[in-house]
Write a structure and sequence with these properties.
By secondary structure, the protein is an all-alpha fold. It has two helices and no strands. The longest helix is centred in the middle third of the chain and has 59 residues. The relative contact order is 0.04. The mean pLDDT is 92.
């Protein structure tokens, strides 16, 4: 074979190998990015589940039954009619 043709074939082959290496590197970077994205999505799902659990807990704690129970536990009682004073706008009773 002619040296010129052999050199051209070697250069073409080297270019092909470099191109394949670049594609492989790019695909591995994309795969790593997808793994990171999947991990972030998983973390978001966990945080959303925790948020729902906290909101549910807050609703339970804000329920009238819980409030009455907590008030009675610290000695509070429901006032009688004589103990209730309704004030007007100017502060007069």
């Amino acid at each position: 074979m002619d040296a010129h043709v052999l050199g051209r074939a070697a250069l073409t082959f080297a270019f092909l190998l470099c191109s394949l290496g670049l594609v492989t590197w790019r695909q591995s970077r994309a795969f790593e990015a997808n793994q990171a994205l999947d991990e972030l999505r998983r973390q978001v799902s966990v945080v959303q589940a925790e948020q729902i659990e906290l909101e549910r807990d807050l609703q339970v704690r804000r329920s009238l039954g819980n409030i009455v129970e907590a008030a009675e536990a610290i000695g509070m009682v429901t006032p009688s009619a004589e103990q209730i004073v309704i004030l007007g706008k100017g502060g007069e009773s």
